[in-house]
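REQUEST
  id: r-88c1
  op: predict_structure
  target: Oligosaccharide repeat unit polymerase
  payload:
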Amino acid sequence: MASLAVIPSFALAGFVMLSWLAALIYRGVADFSVANPFSVIWEPYDFMQSLPILFAAVSGLLCASVFPSRGPTVADLTSAFSGQFVAQWRTWFLVSVAIAAMLVFAKGEYLFEADSYLQFDRGGTIASVANILTPVSLVAAGLVAARKRILGIAITASLMVIIFGYGSRMLAVAPLLHLLGTHLAGAHVRVRVWISALAASIILLPIPLFSRTLPVHGLIAYWEGLWSNLSTIYLVTLPASLGNIGFTAPLAAHVSKSAPIPIEAFFASLDPRLSDGTSWDEWAPILRVHTYIPYSMMGEWANLGLPALFIAMLGWGLVSRACITLTALDRSALGRASMIAVVGLCALSALYSTQYNTRSVNRLITIMILITIMAFVRAAVARQFRYSTAGKVSNLRSSVSQLEHRPPSPVDSSSHSPTRQVSPPPLPPKG
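RESPONSE
  id: r-88c1
  status: 200
  body:
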């Protein structure tokens, strides 16, 4: 059985190949006569010329997955953690509610009505962290559902409403992430339920794609637009969904042929510090096709050369594998939470690598590494403390055992001599 740590690399390699196939189909049926930022990318796309990019990316991911059976398996983690996951359902409830509150707090009033897409009341770090933790909240809601089914489903439904107001494609994978959490908790999820969740994801995907095309944004506008166009939305957006899945291929090809990206831009992208302390703000406007279309990580490294793309995907696979393996070693409550967070962030970074720039992926990888370091250090300190405590207890037991089996010590011989009788003094003579 394959290790959980290599599943992200295998899944991303599979998605990349699926994306190239979807791009081939969409390119043959779509109409690009209307000029827009997407048609500029799609119209010159050549499937055969993009195959080297596909080969380099998939080769790097597969090389990062050698010896796939080494490491923790899903079955191992489920059997080891299931009972503890369920016992900690209150913690997962608080985690999911806290992340939902962060999402609402970041959007503020723009969650309901906004003039533009990606408009936040409190943007910056809060918005970034809330978006990054969104998949974690959905998995946590699934963990709650393993113990309190109705409560867990209610949390997931509430999160989906908030995500709908964001116009995020995370809405489509919400059912699958919910079931993943339930499965990790040890609950039996039937095959037909997984198939139903996959079908729901396919049905939900056109909704955020349609919402983004509306002139106004937010929950109110999205709901009104969805309700008034319910009969035609899938006829219009289903082909767009195919193009959205396949957009990885033409975007990577377009970026690889763009003007050479300076090496300084890669240094800024890989800088783990926040934007305020780096030169990223200087490069961010340049590394974009359009205001709403950033360069992709695969395209950026392909722009530097196919060997660079191979090394970048190999590095992503190895770092993801190491983070999952190390956090899975810690069987404490913090270790379990760290492992779930790393798996969720790894899945999100895989998605980002296909259609978002290196900087976006690097932020997720940086958080994954920090979580892994904290979990590893905590486990090492706890292990050392246990060893130290066990040693002291062992020494104490040994001392007690020695005292119990110690032969009697020799006693002073004077204590065993017969008692000498002392004669009373003679009486004085009588007068």
